[in-house]
Amino acid sequence: MINELTEQLSRGSSLTIEQMTNVMNEILTGTQNDDDVAQFLKNLTQKGESDDELLGMLNKMEEYSVHISPNCNGKIIDVCGTGGDKLKTFNISTTASFVIAGAGGNVAKHGNRSISGISGSADIFEYFGFDLNSEPNKVNETIEKFGIGFMFAQKFHPAMKNVANARKIVGDRTAFNLLGPLTNPAMVKNQLIGVFSNDYQERIVKILKRKNAEIVMSVRSADGMDELSTTSKNQICMLKNNIITKMVLDPQEVGLQKGNITDIQISSKEDAINSFVTVLNGSANKTKIEVTALNAAGGLIVSNIADNFADAVELALNTIHSGKAFDKLKNFVKNYGDIEKLEGVEKI
Asked: How would you write the chain as a 3-class SS string?
C-alpha cells in the first residue's frame, strides 16, 4: 500500500484520513522498510501536508503512545515548540515551564533530546538527574506533587522507533516535527505551541480544535523564533471558547524591554544549563528573564490563571523575582534528581 500512496503523493494528490490511518498503521508497526517510509515522508512534505493527513497521522500517533492522567487542581498544559528555527536560543519553554509551575500552574512537559538545536528539554532534565525512563505512574506523581513533570518522547512514543531510520534518511523536516508537540501523552487540551513557520500557525490550531482542544495558543516571533520573543513583535493564533482569533503582540506594550537575539543565544550545552538556572534564580541577563516571563505568561493564559498578557507577564516576573520559580526547581531536583548538580551550577 505505501508505494501506491507514495505515488499518489508524487502526483500532488492528497490522501484521505482513512488512507493515512492505514499507512500509519503499517509505518508505526514497523512492517515497511525504511527507504519506502522515507520516500513516503519526503513526498508528503514536498506536496504539503493537508489538515486531514496531519489529523490522520496525529490520531494514530496517539493510539500507539503511552498515556498518563494526572489528577490536579486546575488545567494541565504543555508548553513546547516544533523546533527548526535554527536560532540557537537557550531552552526557553523548559525554563518557562518551571515559572508556570511556580505561579500555581500544572505543566505536563513533553520533549526530546535536541535534534536541530544545541540542547533539548530532555537534555536539561537528564543533566539534573531526572530519569528519562521514568514510568508513567512516576511522572503522574511528579505532576500531582510539584505541578510539573517530564515525559521523554522516546519513552512515551515507543512506536516512533520504527520511523527513526526513515527520518534520518530524509535528513530534513517531516510531518513528525510538526506533530510532536501535538501528541502530549497527558492528552492536554490547553497548550502554548511555538511554530517555526507562518504556514502552519493557524492550521495547527484548527487541527487541535477538531480534537476538542480548549485553549490553544500557537506563536511565532517576527524574527523567526518558534517562541514568544521580546526581540520583535509576535504573531499569535488563539483558540478559546471554540473561536479562533489572531493578534500581534508587541512585548513593549506589556512593559518589557526590546531585547537582542544575541542576548538569548547559546553556543554549548553548558551555556544551556547555566541559562536555565540563572533565569530561574533571577541572576541572568534581562532579556533572558523577560523572554522567559513572556512565554510563561502565554502558559498562564492557556492555563486560565491569567486573562491577558499584561497581568500574566507581571505574575511571571514576580514568580521569578520572589524566588518561587527557583524553589520549584530546587524541590523538583531534590526529589527526582541530583541536588549536587544544581548546587554545582549555582557556584559557577
From this structure: CHHHHHHHHHCCCCCCHHHHHHHHHHHHCCCCCHHHHHHHHHHHHHHCCCHHHHHHHHHHHHHCCCCCCCCCCCCEEEEEECCCCCCCECCHHHHHHHHHHHCCCEEEEEECCCCCCCCCHHHHHHHCCCCCCCCHHHHHHHHHHHCEEEEEHHHHCHHHHHHHHHHHHHCCCCHHHHHHHHCCCCCCCEEEEECCCHHHHHHHHHHHHHCCCCEEEEEEECCCCCCCCCCCCEEEEEEECCEEEEEEECHHHHCCCCCCHHHHECCCHHHHHHHHHHHHCCCCCHHHHHHHHHHHHHHHHHCCCCCCHHHHHHHHHHHHHCCHHHHHHHHHHHHHCCHHHHHHHHHC
Task: Please give the share of the chain, as a percent, with pLDDT higher than 70.
Answer: 98
Q: What is the mean pLDDT of residues 272-283?
A: 97
The pTM for the full model equals 0.95
> What pLDDT, on the 0 to 100 scale, is given for residue 177?
85
First to last CA, the chain: 57
User: Domains plus CATH for the chain?
Assistant: 2-63 (1.20.970.10), 76-155+174-332 (3.40.1030.10)
Which residue's C-alpha cell is 491577558?
A: 308
Residues 6+ positions from 79 with CB-CB distance below 8 Å: 93, 96, 97, 100, 107, 109, 191, 192, 295, 298, 299
Give tens-digit pLDDT for 286-296. 999 999 999 99
